[in-house]
């Protein structure tokens, strides 16, 4: 991980393309009046896509002005989420390697070594401008650890060999498939089903018996109060 700061070299300006402007207007219109700032992540993402994969300061301020947000609020969002890149990234791919505990226990350190050897130091674009990489926190695919995210896609159940192949395929312009890279079906158990495997379970009509919970016992009767002694008030 690293301190997330805006890049020291910034372009002069940023303007949405006609297509992204239409997207921005449609997205903003989904929120009630006065709550348009809720569109900030969607608009920053579009700005990043348009800006070769990273967010420049003019792009953040453009989005802030569009949403009537103070620029510091936009910087807070952009610098908090690692989905936003604050410096130029590789033209082909910026590889985000999850290094959090489940991925680390399943081999993330070996994936980082692949990136180090094929791309170079983290947070730097490779000499040929094609790739960059960084370590990030959990990307929410722990069941398929270890994994990486490239742009919007995740590549899971990786080994050093499959990650190497993935990078080579991307570089060569070959199509790649996102998701598990070891043949696993989504997040199903590796090697196929591990439970409810008896075929008898699936033969013939299936009959279900509803079992109702017993009603709760009635509350205890209130204790009888003794009559007041004579002469007392
Ligand atoms: S720990 Fe890597 S995806 Fe959650």
Concise structural overview:
This protein has helices at 18-28, 40-50, 57-66, 71-80, 101-105, 108-118, 160-172; strands at 93-98, 131-136, 148-150, 153-156, 179-180.
List the helices and strands and how they pair.
Elements: H1 18-28, H2 40-50, H3 57-66, H4 71-80, E1 93-98, H5 101-105, H6 108-118, E2 131-136, E3 148-150, E4 153-156, H7 160-172, E5 179-180
Parallel strand pairs: 1-2, 4-5
Antiparallel strand pairs: 1-3, 3-4
Bound molecules: FE2/S2 (inorganic) cluster.
Structure description:
With 233 residues, the protein is α/β, with parallel strands linked by helices. Among the domains are: 18-80, Arc Repressor Mutant, subunit A (Orthogonal Bundle); 93-180, Glutaredoxin (3-Layer(aba) Sandwich). The protein contains seven helices and five strands, in the order ααααβααβββαβ. It has helices at residues 18-28, 40-50, 57-66, 71-80, 101-105, 108-118, 160-172; strands at 93-98, 131-136, 148-150, 153-156, 179-180. The protein is extended and about 100 Å long. The structure holds FE2/S2 (inorganic) cluster. Residues 98, 100, 102-103, 138-142, 145, 147 line the site of FE2/S2 (inorganic) cluster (FES).
């Amino acid at each position: 991980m690293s301190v997330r700061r805006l890049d020291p070299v910034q372009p002069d300006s940023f303007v949405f393309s006609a297509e992204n402007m239409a997207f921005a207007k449609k997205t903003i219109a989904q929120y009630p009046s006065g709550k348009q700032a809720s569109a900030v992540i969607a608009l920053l993402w579009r700005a990043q896509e348009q800006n070769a994969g990273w967010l420049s300061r003019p792009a953040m301020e453009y989005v802030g002005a569009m949403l009537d947000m103070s620029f510091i609020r936009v910087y807070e969002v952009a610098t908090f989420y690692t989905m936003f890149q604050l410096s130029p990234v590789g033209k082909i791919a910026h590889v985000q390697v999850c290094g959090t505990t489940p991925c680390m226990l399943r081999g993330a350190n070996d994936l980082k070594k692949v990136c180090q050897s094929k791309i170079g130091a983290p947070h730097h674009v490779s000499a040929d401008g094609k790739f960059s990489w960084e370590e990030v926190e959990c990307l929410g695919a722990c069941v398929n650890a270890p994994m990486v995210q490239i742009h919007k896609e995740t590549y899971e159940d990786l080994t050093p060999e499959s990650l190497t192949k993935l990078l080579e395929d991307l570089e060569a312009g070959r199509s790649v498939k996102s998701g598990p890279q070891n043949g696993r079906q989504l997040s199903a158990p590796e090697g196929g089903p591990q439970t409810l495997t008896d075929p008898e379970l699936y033969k013939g009509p299936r009959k279900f018996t509803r079992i109702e919970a017993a009603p709760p016992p009635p509350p205890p009767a209130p204790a009888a109060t003794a009559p007041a002694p004579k002469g007392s008030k």
